[in-house]
Amino acid sequence: MRAATKNRRKPAKAIVFANRLVHLGFRVGMIGDLISPVPKKGDIILFSSKSGENPALLNAARKARLHGIKMVVITASPESTLAKMADLTVLLPGELPEFKNIKQAGLAPERTETLFELLSFLIYDVITASLMKKRQPEKVCLK
Fold first, then answer.
1. Any idea where the SIS domain is (predicted)?
2. N or C: which end of the chain has fewer CB within 10 A?
3. Alpha carbon distances (Å) from 112 to 14, 26, 33, 100
């Protein structure tokens, strides 16, 4: 499993997700990380991009497609280039006016810039919990 994100800040949420997958026994790497193993056929790359049009992610997706690597895309843009290239697309809302009010009221988690970012993290938790249930049913507890 590879994770790719367009966020220019440290992709902490993707790193947390990657670490959880490692603890479940998956071979995991981050695109752009020099010590990550090179993805190969049979791997899955998870892309997370609100717009689905980031040039660096599109370049990585094209290379993945050439090597027969499956792609999962989390996006808010179903008609984006990245979404159209995906084997599986998870569509999240980009923004809702209500989220700005929630954030201003201090009810959103700290350092959460957008609703898309918050929901992406929740999707990572859902995927992790599902994989935990399949791989380690006796230990289904996220910490």
1. 1-137
2. C
3. 13, 27, 24, 11
